[in-house]
Amino acid sequence: MSIAEPDRPDDGGDDIFAAEFVLGVLPVPQQAAAARLAETDPAFARLVIAWEDRLFPLADGYDPAALPPAVKAALDRRLFGAPVQAARPRWWQSLGLWRATTGLATAALLVVLALPYAAPPPPAADLPRLMASLAADASDVRYMALFEPERNRVGLARVSGTPGAGQDFELWLIRGSDAPVSLGVLPSEAQAYLSVTAETRALIEAGALLAISLEPTGGSPTGQPTGAVVAAGDLRGI
């Protein structure tokens, strides 16, 4: 186990600490300490994921709660250092810019964002679950994304930012130097899901980029991004 945190409880064990973290009932300093621990301690991160699988089914009948201040602060600490540049033709061929402006989010942060899904069926044998934190330094748009191959969908939790009047956010998948593939227009709800086709599902992999562009209502009229890219992040295994 990693070096003890000053705000980590002295009793109850890491299993109880992980459960309280997932429930969001810890005091603010301990909630932040648990988030840091999940980033650095794989054993603790596994406990968090196990509690997520146990507790998330209990939330199915409830509306999502407002994002706790401690989680907002933890997400803010993971903001990105390089400024966002305006979208330009073939921007997806310069992924270094976007990877410089995005960081590796943790499974713990995704847990606390509370994407409301039921207990998962057995995972797909060929594809792992993946997550991404989508943001950019010069934009207030922030999303967490979870790819669930066993359900052929991408779950999305909006942390902040909304499109203006007459505009929509559209989610794109970019693999290497390939042209972006649209995953769909983002619904207006704070938590939502986008279904993926079998063809698109086969393209989703760790290291691929998810990006959100600002488009006219209904999405891009061309099948490729036409507006500014307001958030992006790499897909990572969990």
UniProtKB/TrEMBL annotation:
Lineage, top-rank taxon, reads Bacteria
Q: Which GO terms describe its molecular function?
A: sigma factor antagonist activity
A Pfam family the protein falls into = RskA_C
**InterPro entries the UniProt entry points to:** Anti-sigma-K/W_factor, RskA_C
Q: Where is the Anti-sigma K factor RskA C-terminal domain?
A: 104-229
**GO terms for biological process?**
regulation of translation
Q: Name one GO cellular component term.
A: plasma membrane
Q: PANTHER family annotated for this entry?
A: ANTI-SIGMA-K FACTOR RSKA
**Protein name, UniProt field:** Anti-sigma-K factor RskA
Q: Which species?
A: Gemmobacter megaterium
